[in-house]
Amino acid sequence: MDSNPVVQTEGLTKRYGSILAVDDLSLTVPRGHVFGLLGPNGSGKTTTMGMLLGLVRPTAGSFSLFGTHTNHQASLRRVGAIVETPTFYPYLTGRQNLAYFQGILGRGAAQELDDLLEQVSLADRADDRFHTYSLGMKQRLGLAYALLGDPGLLFLDEPTNGMDPAGMAEMRGLIRSLGTQDRTVFLSSHLLHEVEQVCDSVVILSKGKLIAQGSVADLLKGRGQIRLRTTDNAQALTILTALDWVEEATLEDETLVVTAPSERAPELSAALGRADIYVTEMTSGKESLESYFLEITAAEEGEEGR
Amino acid sequence: MIAHVLRLSIWEWHKLRRRMLPWLLLAIVVILMQVAVWGAYAVYRTEPFSPRHGIGIGETASENAGENASENKETIFEAEWTCKDVRGNRIPPGVEELADEHRESALASVEEFRESCAGYEEFRTFTSNAVLLPNSILLGFTLLQGTLFILVSILGAAALGAEYGWGTLRTVLTKGTGRWQFLTAKIVALMFTALVGLLIASATVALSSVLIGIFGLESETLQGTVEWLEVPLKIGALLFSFLPYVMLALLATALTSSTAAGITTFVVYYLIEATIFPALNNFDWFKRASEYLLSPNATALLESSYGEVSITIGENGDAAQPDVLHALLVLGAYTLVFGALTYWLFQRRDITGAKGG
Asked: Confidence class of residue A214 from pLDDT cuts 50, 70 and 90?
C-alpha cells in the first residue's frame, strides 16, 4: 500500500457570511482506506466534500488530491462521487445518464456500463427514465456513476440513504470491497453502525471543527463498559470511583455501570475483593462508535455552550 | 483542451436533442414560418389589400328656385373597380350602355385608377416572389426575427437553468469536466441546435414553396428573385445576432440559478427595447444612444442581408439605421461583455444541490 496520502487538507475553512461551516480543518486520508467523515447535521461534512470536489470555494486553507495542490480538474477525473442525493437528467434513462457521463469523461466502453449496472443491481431497470426511480435506485445509479472510469478515490455522501435494510447491507459490503488496494473511499454518513462496520479510520466533525481523528479501533481502544453486581453496591461505588483509570461509575437499578477499559475488568474485581466486597455478576463490552460519537459531540456542544 | 470542449459539446448536443423543449420551440418556428409563406400566398391569391375604386354617375335636378332650392340627385350608374379588374382590362357591366358622355367619364376614371394601381402591382409582384425560393425562406426569417430571439433565449436559459434546477451541475462538475469548458460546450451546443433548427425550418418552407410554385402560381419558374447565397448569409447573420441575446439569458440564469428568472430577465429587457426605446427616439439626445442598443443593431445586421425581401416592422422613430460594421461591432461587444460576466460568475459561484426550478 502506498503511504502517500490521497487527500490532505491544511487549514481548510469555509465561511458563509457570519456562519463558519468548516473551521481550519486539517486531515489526512491514506491510500487504500475506507475513511469515514462523521458529524451531526450541519457539522460541515458536505461542505468539506464540496470543497474537495471543487464545487465550493474555500475561504481559506488548501488541499491536495493524489498529492497535487494544483490542477484539481485533472485530479477530479480520477475521482468518483455521490454528494447528498444523486442527481441525474430526469428525461434520460439510467443507461443514457451513465453513457453521457462516460462520454464527457472520454474513456470507457459500453461493456463498462453493463458491468456497473450489474454490479449495483440496476440492470433490469437501466432503460427506464431516471425520474421513475425510487430513492434507493437513484443511490445505486449514483454509485455506478461514481465508479465510472475506475476512479482511485470515491467520495460517498450518505450512500445508503433511502435504501431498504437488504440494500443497505449489500451497499456496505460493496463499499468494504471498494476500499482495497489502490482505491480509497471517503465515506460520509450519519449511520454510525454502518461506518463502524466499513471504515478503517474516521474523522469526527462538530460545528465545522475536527474533534477526533484516528482508526476506529484506536478511538474505541480503552473505552468499554463493565456492568456488575456486588455484595455491597454502595461501598463498591465509592471504591470504583476512586480508581484513576475508571472514567465514570454509576449505580443503575442495583447494577454498577463502570466506564473503563473492558480488559481491566479483573482488576476491578480484585480492588473490590481487597475491601471484602464480592462480585456476584459481571459483564463487559466494548463501547460502540455511536455512543463514543454521541458522547464526544455532546461534550463539544457543552463546551461551546459555556 | 479543444478536443475536450468538442467532446463536451457533442455530448451536450446529444443531451439537448433528447429534451422536449427544443422540439417544441422548433415546432413553433416551423408553424410560424409556414404561416408566413402560406399567408403571403393567400395575400397573393385573394388580394385583400387591393385598392378599390368606386364610380358613381348621377344627374342632379333642381326643384324650386331661390333660397329654398333643393337638389335631388338621381343615380344613373354605380360600380366598383379593383386593381384585379384593371389588370384584366375588365369593364364593369353596364358601362357600355351608358350615354357617351357618361361612358367617357367612367372610362377616364378607370384610367386614373390604373395609375394608382401601379404601386399595388409592385406589392403583388413582391408577394408572388416572396413565396418562391429562396425568397420565402428569407421572408420567414424576416417576419420571425423577434420571435427567434425570444425562442433561442428561452432555450439558452432552460439549458443552463435546468442544470441548477435538477442539481445535475454538481454531478457534471465532480467528473472533472471544468466549469468554463462546460459552459463553452453548452453555448456551442445551443448555437448548433439553433443552426439545425433554422435549417429544418428552411427545409419545410422550401417544401411549401415548391408546392405553391407548382400548383398555386402561374409562374413558369420556381426560382425567386433572391440569390441562394443570401440564405447562408442570413443564417450566419441570425446566429451572430443570437449570441448577445443567448449570453444575456445565460448571464441572468447564472446570476439567479433559475430558468424562470433567466427567461424573465431576458424578456423584460427585450420588451423594454421594443417598447420604451422607440418612444425615446423622439428625443434628439436619445437617437445617438439608441445606435448602441442591441435591437437596432441586430435589425440593421439582419436587414442588410435581406436585400429586396426587407420588410420594416414597426416604427423606430426616425433613428438612423446603423451600418453593418457598426452593428457587428456593437453585437460583438455585447456578446463579449455578457459572456465575460457569465463566465466570471459561473467560475466563482459555489454549486449546491437541486433548486427544483
From this structure: confident
Q: Do B175 and A77 touch (CB under 8 A)?
A: yes
Count other Cβ atoms within 10 Å, centred on residue B148: 26
Nearest residue in B to A145, CA atom: B171
- pLDDT of B305 reads 56
CB contact under 8 A, A73 and B14: no
Taking the C-alpha atoms of residue A72 and residue B154, their distance in angstroms, rounded to an integer, is 33
Residue A301 lies in a domain: no
Higher pLDDT, B221 or A38: A38
Let me know if residue A9 belongs to a domain.
Answer: yes
d(CA A190, CA B125): 77
Residue A303: inside a domain: no
Instruction: With beta carbons less than 8 A apart as the criterion, state whether B282 and B316 touch.
Output: no
Exposure letters B85-123 (e unless 16+ CB within 10 A, then b): bbeeeeeeeebeebeeebbeebeebbeebbeebeebeee
Which CATH number belongs to the domain containing residue A263 in this structure?
Answer: 3.30.70.100
Give tens-digit pLDDT for B49-92.
888 888 777 766 655 555 555 556 677 777 788 888 888 877 77
Domain that holds residue A235: 224-286
Q: Is the pLDDT of residue B316 over 50?
A: no
Position B156 scores a pLDDT of 95
Q: Are residues A48 and A187 in the same domain?
A: yes
The last residue of one of the domains, among A193, A216, A239, is A216
Both A21 and A162 in a single domain?
yes
pTM: 0.82
- Domain check: are A85 and A204 in the same one? yes
State the number of CA atoms in the 13 A half-sphere of B147 facing the CB: 17
Taking alpha carbons only, the member of A58, A52, A53 closest to residue A21 is: A58
Of B15, B166, B178, the CB nearest to A73: B178
**Alpha-carbon A294 to chain mean position:** 14
ipTM: 0.80
Count of the separate structural domains present in chain A: 2
Looking at the structure, tell me whether residues A235 and A188 fall in a common domain. no
Tell me the CB-side half-sphere exposure of residue B50, using CA atoms within 13 A: 23
pLDDT digits (tens, 9 = 90+) for B209-239: 999 888 877 767 777 788 888 899 999 999 9
Same domain, residue pair A195 and A229? no
A69 and A181 in a common domain: yes
Burial class (CB in 10 A: 0-12, 13-18, 19+), B301: buried
A85 CB neighbours in chain B (<8 A) are 167, 353-354
Does any domain span residue A197? yes
Mean pLDDT computed over A83-106 = 93
Could you tell me if A45 and A156 lie in one domain?
A: yes
Contacts with B, A 100-159, CB within 8 Å: 100-101, 103-106, 145, 148, 155
Whether the per-residue pLDDT at B320 is higher than 60: the answer is no
Mean pLDDT taken over chain A: 86
- Verify that A46 and A75 share a domain, yes or no: yes
Q: Do B174 and A104 touch (CB under 8 A)?
A: no
Phi, psi of A222 (to 5 degrees): 75, 5
% of chain B at pLDDT higher than 90: 42
